[in-house]
Amino acid sequence: MASKPSVSAHDVAERAGVSRSAVSRTFTPGASVAPETRERVLKAADELGYHVNHLARGLMRRESGIVCLIVSDAATPYRSALLRELTIHLQNAGKVVMLINTDRSDDSVGQALRQAIRYQADASIILSGLPDKSITQLCLKNGQRLVLINRDDDQPGPLKINLNDEEASSRIALAFERAGCRHVAFANSDARTPSLMARERGFSKAAEALGLEVTVERYGWTGYEAGKVLAHRLLTRKIRPEAVFCATDLLACGFMDAARHEFGLSIPGQLCVAGFDDIEQAGWESYQLTTFAQPLASIAEAAVSWLCSAPEETAMSVPSVLIEPQLIWRKSVRGG
Amino acid sequence: MASKPSVSAHDVAERAGVSRSAVSRTFTPGASVAPETRERVLKAADELGYHVNHLARGLMRRESGIVCLIVSDAATPYRSALLRELTIHLQNAGKVVMLINTDRSDDSVGQALRQAIRYQADASIILSGLPDKSITQLCLKNGQRLVLINRDDDQPGPLKINLNDEEASSRIALAFERAGCRHVAFANSDARTPSLMARERGFSKAAEALGLEVTVERYGWTGYEAGKVLAHRLLTRKIRPEAVFCATDLLACGFMDAARHEFGLSIPGQLCVAGFDDIEQAGWESYQLTTFAQPLASIAEAAVSWLCSAPEETAMSVPSVLIEPQLIWRKSVRGG
DNA sequence: GTCACGCTTGCAAGCGTGTGCAAAGACTGC
DNA sequence: GCAGTCTTTGCACACGCTTGCAAGCGTGAC
């Protein structure tokens, strides 16, 4: 196959009998071009199979139309759902997404951002890792906009989208108390992500305020297997908790499976379980997990509309959005 | 923030006291540049925070380093796992991935490919939709390489990676027969994807050859809910099948949940169930599903190494790879 | 001393586009 | 018919980079 079949605006101009500028203007919304020439150009372009070269356009406009999505654990139910939502919203806004995975090394987020800069990305959305100050500034210094989701960074510049984890978690404590549970527990991973810690804090404080006995356990990576381990640790205690709030639905699924199949407990009869995220599996018949739904569409909406707004607007807007999770009552907690 | 903080090779050259070419060559592997100048350039580049502009580089080299991933149902466990694997492999190969979602309209794959062409993508990998001939050719005509995964297109040009669905499915028929089942069923979605149909075909043929009674049911979108509906349809028949092969793990999860919680059946005691894909949930305690694992790493490996090989090599190579799924025995089928 | 050779380096010509500027043309109102 | 206004168009430069070409330089062999 020929490696240089590329037809440029010059070719189209020649065929349509106009100047190259006319071609350029035809494909530039809002440019001044006569309807007749426009049509001639479009016809010639179609016949030749012409496509505007966005690399060159990006070079001129100093705006590539590229938005980087920097993500780890992309195959996880919650992350993949958020990823999908963001991708669709960005596409609808005429942006194109560049996906960067940061599962591997420690500096992988830095590497990713450097890559983003090389491609002149207009913006980056970070769903992973703890971007430290230097990295964030590297990004801003190169003229990118930055969105941090559930990252709780306190520097000015990036848009910060956060869930009201703490308040939501306190509502679960109340629900446990109403279900008649005295000994409750929080099952967390050992990732110590800001949002995970906020959930732990919110739940513990509220439970203690209600006079409940609360124990906290942390273990491993935020996934199904860790949930099973946490179940072993918590359910073999002298005083077994009657209700457990898992920091994540994935943890909750592992926890429930271990509780049922290895400890023979009935849920919610002998044990109440709640989770966070409302991943698809939370609604499956085997779990029917009471949990908090993250309004993914709202999150994506907020991120994209900020990215696409005019510079002067974003300079004025409050660079922080707080989103309320929605409690989904199913059958893993008594009452409701 | 300044929107034009971009430092170009010219600036670096000036600071290092060399020509622009020297800077360019410093960042071009294999170019002729004296160690001493190289070092001076690197120092200056670091001080100024210089990054090569890949848009401009792509413009000159006629090779952008961009690979498009065109995908639908990206939030599905199987798809997101494959997506992750591909992304990581591509990154390791020095490529950058552009993600395009095609959940929406009918022509969305066409739109996606057009977008890919505009950004001069070196290649596209299609995990979704039925790309018809015109679209495929559009892609090749513009000098892109194309990889089709589980798409079974028969034109020359693209690399086709397929699973040996038919042969694998026949092994499940045998397993059911050995488990002592006489009436078996195949639960499929109504998507009629080539690979889904191949599984149906392989299973049916093999089951009939073994003298089993086989019924096929198809319904809806390939997801959990469809699995539940399929269970209702198949388990309310006069002669209830003793074993069901679901075209997909997601279908199988829905099927198992309905079979257990709505029909009170024990698995594998009263009903054998098998699936395909080996999604993470298949290994969860609640399912323990016997299924076929897709060697995702091998798939990604094959795709990426073909994409990165020299043109003359790919012209000679057989543009088709057949991959053997691996049977994972768990507890949803008797025997094993 | 000379010549050939190899390694570096600067020059300049592109790559495909957007856009300011000025000129040309069309049209209106008088 | 003419001045004034508005629309359309082409020219030419800029964007940041790569790379062929030829010149410069140092080295070693004869």
TrEMBL record, chains A, B:
Residues 7-61 form the HTH lacI-type domain. CDD domains: HTH_LacI, PBP1_LacI-like. SUPFAM superfamilies: lambda repressor-like DNA-binding domains, Periplasmic binding protein-like I. SMART domains: HTH_LACI. Keywords: DNA-binding, Repressor, Transcription, Transcription regulation. GO terms for molecular function: DNA binding. PANTHER family: LACI-RELATED TRANSCRIPTIONAL REPRESSOR (PTHR30146), RIBOSE OPERON REPRESSOR (PTHR30146:SF95). This is LacI family DNA-binding transcriptional regulator. The lineage of its organism: Bacteria, Pseudomonadati, Pseudomonadota, Alphaproteobacteria, Hyphomicrobiales.
